[in-house]
Amino acid sequence: MDMPPHGTVETVAPGVRRVIAPNPSPFTKWGTNSFIVGEGEVAVIDPGPDIAAHVDALRHAVAGERVAAIIATHSHRDHSPAARALAAATGAPILGGPPIRFDPNAPKADAGFDAEYRPDRVLADGERVSASGWVLETVATPGHTSNHLCFALAGTGILFSGDHVMGWATTVIIPPDGDMGDYMASLERLLERDDSLYLPAHGGAVDTPRRLVRGQLGHRKHREGQILRLLKEGEADVPALVRRMYVGLDERLVGAAGLSVRAHLNDLNRRGRIVATGERWAVAA
């Protein structure tokens, strides 16, 4: 699919508009999808990065309407920072998961997070947000981050899937906050639902969501099996595992692959399948 234009307003489903932020990258595809739900009284889901042109585009998109809620699926810097500028312009409350607290002795762990994220209201699993003409139900999906939430638009089959499920790429799990075991459990949870259309925060709509979720579960289980087979051949560190598992990978994505491998290692270690000696890993005896 060609890159849609940044800053323009597109209707992507009945009652749902999209404005794409100008932050394309190997991790965001064409940029962050900011969704506007409803007409007259609206919610803005994932307002995106605090880029003045994007905030202006969102303000123009909702001109003459009341913004009832500004919602972040999670607090990564490409999702939540624009919430503050949009809230200042509209008076709307910021809603989402809780802020994430990091170990101050691990300063690099929070590099991708919005350090100033402070929602006016923390949403719990199953909690509803509503205004005239729409109801959004919170679906807790930790894994990509511990505070990741999806949102189901009641009566439509639409799920705003944030970064939990995307059609164009697999989700990166970054320890220590990202947790592979939680991510897999959240995927299993989505399989139990009957949503018919996913609108992710990056890339296009997913119109066969159950098939995609089953495929992503299978992909993660395949990666787990790869790790176990390689460690049965001998102990290894993360860089060595990445070289053997991701042959021909774009160099820009090597770091992200290493983080996902580490997330798998942490999960396997917690389950007693492998053990660590410093930075090297081996199959448990």
UniProtKB/TrEMBL annotation:
Pfam families hit by this protein: Lactamase_B, WHD_BLACT
Taxonomic classification: Bacteria, Pseudomonadati, Pseudomonadota, Alphaproteobacteria, Sphingomonadales
Record domain Metallo-beta-lactamase: where: 31-202
Alphabetical list of SUPFAM superfamilies matching this protein: Metallo-hydrolase/oxidoreductase
PANTHER family according to UniProt: ENDORIBONUCLEASE LACTB2
InterPro entries cross-referenced by the UniProt entry: LACTB2_WH, Metallo-B-lactamas, RibonucZ/Hydroxyglut_hydro, Sec-metab_biosynth-thioest, WH-like_DNA-bd_sf
Protein name according to UniProt: Glyoxylase-like metal-dependent hydrolase (Beta-lactamase superfamily II)
